[in-house]
Amino acid sequence: MKAMVLQALCDLKENPMPLALMELPVPIPGAQEILLKVSACGVCHTELDEIEGRTPPPRLPIIPGHQVVGRVETVGSQVNTLKTGDRVGVAWIFSACGTCKFCLSGKENLCPAFAATGRDANGGYAEYMTVAEDFTYAIPEVFSDVQAAPLLCAGAIGYRSLRLTGLKDGQRLGLTGFGASAHLVLKMVQYRYPNSEVYVFARSSKERAFAKELGAVWVGDTAERAPHKLDGIIDTTPAWQPIVEALANLESGARLVINAIRKEGDKRSLLNLDYPLHLWQEKELKSVANITRSDVKEFLSLAAKMNIQPEIQVFALEQANEALIELKTGKIRGAKVLKMN
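RE: above sequence
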């Protein structure tokens, strides 16, 4: 099979071709696993964090990719619910122990043994992959393969982030950064909270124009002040400076939800924190750590009801490096998806 493989960590500014196209054996599924013939795989900023070492894979080489859609090619001897030909998806959560206090309380995203698709196990930048039956998701028929791929991470993590804000209909929401996840959050807010206004902060004028096109009531640069204090803000940027700026736009007693696996190196921005302006009045910060299987299932059901249509850019598997560089350099409009031949 063909696969795009990460063999060594690197800085993409120095090496714009971090993944190598390789011919590898088709993997063999275990007793409780399926062999998935991949048809599409989303490209996520988390792959940049893996490649550049902010959340490094525990072993190399590794096949990245955690927004995977495909069809069951073969099943293991103990697989009970899937059969050859079924269309399923795979998300960031590859496995969890199932027995710790977090798993037993519905917080498997916090499991100490949490394993991530495409980081701790080979992912979907390939023609085939294996995954446990219990960590796959039926894809609603309303979505094509390439439309469904970004829903498995950008959509599911956006869904979790929105829920964690505690937003109520009629309250104002801010989105800092406007890429794959944020543009789906905006669509969710319009559906679930029709009386809520969305304010978008983004460095790129193209991202701001895209947000306005989708219905944001106000758009501005990351450092600008919104015309109103906001009842919740979701940050999807890779940097620290937007965090500081978002706190200044946050209403008293409101919450900033940070939807990012890792932040990059501009920590000096935190020296600009001013306690009365940014942190006082019981403002809250909450990080989003991974997703649970229920997040994915609930969001896919909601997305089907909404008939949500993610904005996508399609690349061939062999163009994975190109898609990653576009993410790195801020060439973003919606989500990027690899489509297999």
